[in-house]
TrEMBL record:
Annotated protein name in UniProt: Response regulator
Keywords for this protein: Coiled coil, Cytoplasm, DNA-binding, Phosphoprotein, Transcription, Transcription regulation, Two-component regulatory system
All copies of domain HTH araC/xylS-type, residue ranges: 427-527
Positions where 4-aspartylphosphate occurs in the chain: D55
DNA-binding recorded as keyword: yes
Protein species of origin: Paenibacillus dendrobii
PANTHER family for this protein: HISTIDINE KINASE-RELATED, TRANSCRIPTIONAL REGULATORY PROTEIN HPTR
Response regulatory domain mapped to chain residues: 3-120
GO terms under biological process: phosphorelay signal transduction system
Coiled-coil ranges (or none): 109-143
One cellular component term from this protein's GO annotations in UniProt: cytoplasm
Primary residence: cytoplasm
Length: 528
């Protein structure tokens, strides 16, 4: 609807004007009427109409004077003069001072509609041009701000300085900080482009309302679907980023819009060159989201101040997982994955190291898929990209939830492979070794004799079922039990531990332990 006001000193004409056409049906809303020029000017100030239709002859202020004042104060309001035949030349002169059109009195419905159609067309054209100009300005602004975060030499260009003046960035201080916001789950949800734009627009709007600083902020769309907030502080002493606004952002998005975001913050710095550096730091912070609290702003300064900890990831966890997959031990797989997750959390590992561990777990699971004689595409859809999946997970919990689903899906598929008598024999043989590993004389022949089978057959089912020999499994079981004893805190003598896990010779035990773990028993005990 276009808002219209009209002014005429004749009551009869004002009454006619209100009913000559169905205003609403033609896209217009009558906002008021005036009987003289002064009332009309006040009405314009109060209603800010799109169109003012005014008679040329009115008391106190005639139509020409009114038109001049309206055009001076409210240039976006279109003015149409109503005039008699005797004033025709007078009206034509009015066009030269900015009046947009005129209509001769008396007029009928058709003549008024024609005049209104002309004005409406002019308004739409102007709005289109303004919209196009605003879009061009917005595109140039976004392009420029992206240049600032992507170009290491941005501060040296004369063009950069000119653009900063246009954005009023020169009026504020030279201390900058970059905040990068990523919408969680964009790759997984496969959203339509329009939905992605809507979510980014929502985040940008809320950021502008919720994040307040002593200075100015510039919000724009950055690389890889990120929303970037460039903070420009008045003075260095005013550099302060409260997390309260971000906490509200998380809450509002989750409660009212059904999605979440992750926020990474670079450090504040002086000069244009600091913008690029702060942006890179904010991205590094985002990449470490998996090692930090999901509800926090991920601050780069917290990452660099945190002691580097790559831990000592126990390789037997992966070895156990592969065996558990082969034996279809669903409960044990779940327990092992939970143990790995707890190990990561307890040791506060870095994001890079966590991703390395997760990548190893994915590789192990896919190795088992190939052992089944299957291809990855037989189980997972085309385009399945597990390493991209784990990289994009917003938290450690989300990553391990996805990992558990991966293992369970593979396990479910493997159950379709017919289990033979040899599988049952393998399970029984494993249980026998797990019970008798402390016997230093335990051999393949002893186990074969117990189950009344040939040693060669026992070797075959171990190789096919576990990918290792019987002797290797006995050694792995003994080393695993030795690790448990060394980590128990009971301060047992090494000779006692060696005997408890089936080694009568301490030197042989130590040599075998180091071969499998890379550490001597004493060194391993210190690391636990």
């Amino acid at each position: 609807m276009y808002k219209v006001i009209f002014a005429d000193d004749e009551a009869r004409f004002r009454a006619y004007f209100k009913c000559v056409i169905d205003w609403n049906a033609h896209g217009f809303e009558l906002c008021g009427e005036a009987k003289n020029g002064l009332e009309a000017l006040k009405l314009v100030e109060e209603t800010l109409p799109d169109i003012a239709i005014v008679d040329i002859n009115m008391p106190y202020m005639n139509g020409m004077e009114l038109a001049a004042k309206v055009k001076e104060k409210y240039p976006s309001t279109f003015v149409v003069l109503v005039t008699g035949h005797s004033e025709f030349e007078y009206a034509r002169k009015a066009l030269k001072i900015g009046v947009d059109d005129y209509i001769l009195k008396p007029f009928d419905e058709e003549e008024l509609l024609v005049a209104l159609a002309k004005v409406k067309s002019s308004i739409e054209k102007l709005q289109s041009e303004r919209s196009k100009t605003e879009k061009e300005k917005a595109a140039l602004r976004e392009s420029f701000l992206n240049l600032l975060i992507s170009n290491d030499d941005a501060g040296d260009s004369e063009m950069i300085q000119e653009q900063m003046e246009r954005l009023d960035m020169q009026e504020y201080g030279g201390v900058f900080q970059v905040i990068s916001v990523e919408i969680d789950g964009l790759q997984e949800e496969l959203l339509h482009t329009a939905e992605v734009r809507l979510r980014k627009s929502t985040v940008s709007s809320l950021l502008g309302d919720l994040i307040q600083i002593e200075g100015k902020h510039h919000i724009f769309n950055g690389p890889e679907n990120r929303i970037i907030m460039l903070l420009q502080y008045d003075h260095e002493e005013n550099v302060s980023l409260s997390e309260d606004g971000f906490v509200k952002l998380y809450s509002i998005l989750k409660k009212h819009f059904g999605f979440s975001v992750t926020v990474g913050a670079g450090r504040a710095g002086s000069g244009m060159a600091s913008i690029r550096q702060s942006y890179k730091e904010s991205v590094v912070a985002l990449r470490n989201r998996i090692s930090m609290n999901l509800d926090d702003v991920l601050k780069y300064e917290n990452l660099v101040s945190r002691p580097a900890n790559i831990g000592f990831y126990p390789s037997e966890m992966n070895e156990n997982l592969l065996i558990q997959l082969r034996l279809h031990e669903e409960a044990k797989i779940k327990d092992t994955l939970e143990a790995i997750q707890n190990y990561i959390r307890t040791n506060q590992l870095s994001g890079d190291y966590i991703h390395m561990i997760l990548a190893g777990l994915v590789s192990l699971c896919l190795t088992y898929v190939h052992e089944l004689g299957k291809h990855v595409n037989d189980i997972f859809p085309t385009g399945f990209s597990p390493f991209e999946e784990i990289t994009n997970k917003p938290s450690l919990e989300a990553a391990f939830e996805w990992m558990h689903e991966l293992y369970m899906k593979v396990l479910e598929h493997s159950r379709n492979v017919k289990r033979s008598k040899s599988n049952k024999t393998l399970t029984l043989a494993r249980e026998y070794i797990d019970t008798h590993y402390a016997d230093s004389q335990l051999k393949v022949e002893d186990i074969s004799r117990h189950f009344l089978i040939q040693p060669r057959y026992l070797l075959k089912i171990f190789k096919e079922g576990l990918g290792m020999s019987v002797s290797d499994y006995i050694v792995e079981t003994r080393i695993k039990k030795a690790k448990e004893l060394l980590s128990s805190g009971r301060n047992l003598r090494l000779s006692s531990i060696a005997e408890m896990v089936g080694y009568s010779d301490l030197a042989h035990f130590s040599k075998t332990f180091k071969k499998h773990t890379g550490l001597s028993p004493s060194e391993y005990e210190v690391t636990r």
